[in-house]
Amino acid sequence: MTERPRVFLDTESTRLPPNHRPWEIALVSDYPTGTTEVVIVVTDLDLSDADPKSLAMNGFHDRHPKGDRFAGEDPTVMYLTESDTASALEFLLDKVEIVCAQPPFDLECIGALLSRNNAERTWHYRTRDIESLAEGFLRRPVGGLQDCAKLLDVEVDPLAVHSALGDARLVRACWHAMFGSYTGTV
């Protein structure tokens, strides 16, 4: 069986569901030639329904251009409008299998972003929830992503928690702790 290309994904959003909008999206992909990381920050973000507690917890004020403590653009991050983000995601997620913590949370807000911009959900219908996989692997209940990582003996960087890239990397590390490194073909 040929493995489908896999993307480890996380979003940071304006609030908890419903009506949560992604403001930071990270995609981490494994390929035989190495790991690729993409971070997108949505620049024309609608904050009319944002929850201040959510924004404080996920570092919005430090990492988003609309934030009050934003220190300047990071050259490793793509700062895109919502429309350009939709186009990029339509391309970057085409036919990939997505692995994340709580796929409905991330994929609902990404799906809504795509719909608002007349773009398609192009990822493979089979998505993977790293927390559910860890429960099966460990044969016991696990909590959230950080608890899952600790139970799998994966180091959690406290400075990276609740950043899209930090959490996507953590999802990838948990996957590798359970299943090993990338072995498929692209």
Can you offer a commentary on this structure?
- β2 and β3 form a beta hairpin.
- α3 packs across α4 and α6 runs parallel beside α7 (about 165-180).
- This protein has a 6-stranded mixed β-sheet with strand order 4-3-2-1-5-6.
- The mean pLDDT is about 95.
- It is globular and about 45 Å long.
- It has a single domain (about 5-180), classed as Nucleotidyltransferase, domain 5, CATH 3.30.420.
- It is built from 7 helices and 6 strands, in the order βββααβαβαβααα.
- The protein has about 190 residues and is of the alpha/beta class.
Number of strands: 6
Q: Over all CA atoms, what is the radius of gyration?
A: 16 Å
In terms of per-residue confidence, which ranges show pLDDT below 50 for 5 or more consecutive residues? none
Return the structural class: alpha/beta
Give the strand line-up of the largest sheet: 4-3-2-1-5-6
Q: In a few lines, what is going on in this structure?
A:
This protein has helices spanning 52-57, 60-63, 82-92, 103-116, 130-138, 145-151, 164-179, and strands at 6-13, 22-31, 34-42, 78-80, 97-100, 128-129. By secondary structure, it is an alpha/beta fold.
Please describe the structure with a list of short key phrases separated by commas or semicolons:
186 residues; alpha/beta; Nucleotidyltransferase, domain 5; six-stranded mixed sheet; 19% strand
Furnish the topology, listing elements before pairings.
Blueprint: E1 6-13, E2 22-31, E3 34-42, H1 52-57, H2 60-63, E4 78-80, H3 82-92, E5 97-100, H4 103-116, E6 128-129, H5 130-138, H6 145-151, H7 164-179
Parallel strand pairs: 1-5, 3-4, 5-6
Antiparallel strand pairs: 1-2, 2-3
